[in-house]
Amino acid sequence: HLPRPPKVLGLQARALTPQTAETDAIRFLVGTQSLKYDNQIHIIDFDDENNIINKNVLLHQVGEIWHISASPADKGVLATCYNRTSDSKVLTCAAVWRMPKELESGSHESPDDSSSTAQTLELLCHLDNTAHGNMACVMWEPMGDGKKIISLADNHILLWDLQESSSQAVLASSASLEGKGQLRFTSGRWSPHHNCTQVATASDTTLRGWDTRSMSQIYCIENAHGQLVRDLDFNPNKQYYLASCGDDCKVKFWDTRNVTEPVKTLEEHSHWVWNVRYNHSHDQLVLTGSSDSRVILSNMVSISSEPFGHLVDDDDISDQEDHRSEEKSKEPLQDNVIATYEEHEDSVYAVDWSSADPWLFASLSYDGRLVINRVPRALKYHILL
């Protein structure tokens, strides 16, 4: 049982990401959202052996953080979307930052060491959005060299090249949502499949797929949800599968080759669902967080890349085991809710898996509470064995 963290941030927060380029240490980055105080990025280290959370604080004085994402190639580089007020107008901007070298790999401060001073972030470059409007999110090319990013701003999808040492972001190409009504992107994900040439976006109740080479639309799922779509994610192992969630309290799973109906719908939350995340290694494990203040871990095995469980090669099976394994593999396994986590007392705005430990995940509620949990051990061994 992991420690029940107090409100580890001390400030309101809604932005969370694993430190994507870090594959050894368990480390998350959290961005605060305070109107009264200077905002901060907390580097959260989870010390697995001693069950302790350590943190370092970076100052992010430009404004409250709405979205945070980490470079897939460089542990020290991250992007934020933040609110800036100028001429009494609020604009959501985006920038790429570098943390101090000594913090890239965390620290071993004692968790209650309040004397440690906050350090500053180095600004690498702004994503200039004067012509494009409010930035909703910044996505890094998966498995990339950290030089290609896509940002969503109002109704624009913008592909940027970060020049040498990321000191400048050059707009390489863009596309816009056309049509009537309030067209604004709320979120997006860059697919790890198709040589990283596809991105999916959410705007209002619609999901769209885009080809990043031509910046043209490849599929469109209208009325994917009854209300606003909040988030989406790609199955890491099945190239046409994607999950979405929204204000209709539902989580839906789609096959982008046939978008007339979802493959599956989950209705376990009782309020808006803010986040959906596939486990990076075992795609049957799906994490969701909601304004009902719960985090739900679901086992979506029937639509996973291993619907019959872990199949063993024939060569590995001796005769007496033959019969057993055939029995095991005939029926697809049943989908179910593995666990519901109730440690939060406020809306859970973000959930995400560790990039270092496939069985560990973090969740963040608006009151600044960060909770770290594990996939139950029995299920872990069931999946592995």
Q: Please name the CATH architecture of one domain.
A: 7 Propeller
Quick one: biggest sheet? 5 strands, mixed
What share of residues are in beta strands?
over 45%
Q: Per the principal axes of the C-alpha atoms, what is the gross shape?
A: globular
Task: Round the Cα radius of gyration to an integer and report it.
Answer: 21 Å
Question: What's the average pLDDT?
Answer: 89
How many beta-strand segments? Answer: 28
The separation of the N and C termini measures 23 Å
Low-confidence parts, pLDDT < 50 over ≥5 residues?
Answer: 314-319, 323-327
Widest sheet, order of strands:
1-2-3-4-8
Would you tell me which CATH topology of one domain applies? Methylamine Dehydrogenase, Chain H
Protein name: EARP and GARP complex-interacting protein 1
Organism: Saimiri boliviensis boliviensis
Subcellular location: Golgi apparatus, trans-Golgi network
Main location: Golgi
